[in-house]
Design brief:
This protein is about 15% helix and about 30% strand. With about 140 residues, the protein is of the alpha+beta class.
Amino acid sequence: MRPGIPAQAIEPTHAARAAALPLLSTDGGDWVRARIAGADVHQKPGQPRRSLKVIYTDERGEIFRDWLAFEHSPGARWHAVRKWQQLGGSMPAPNTASEALWRQHELARSVDILTSFDGKFWQVTQRRARPEQAA
């Protein structure tokens, strides 16, 4: 757009519409107390890169999944490292999904997660480690 020239309205060429809440919004959701029930290496069929799949269960037994894409693009890796730290993992962060699986003992077992529904799946949008309770 150049100064002095009015902007023209651009009509969308698709039927998609924005959701009422953005995917990463913290509005409309509550933190859920959960535990990390397990982790595994995840690889989509036909894709060379792998991720660490973290499985959470809440107090009602519902299951949520989160993926830490250490082996993907620099942006995806940045998010994976941030998630790793939020879950209590030590730095430096793992370089591969296999290394992350081997180091999963570093992650907190008790966590709080914030989720949102994207229309098809529940997404873990935020996570934070919770201190373990003394027995």
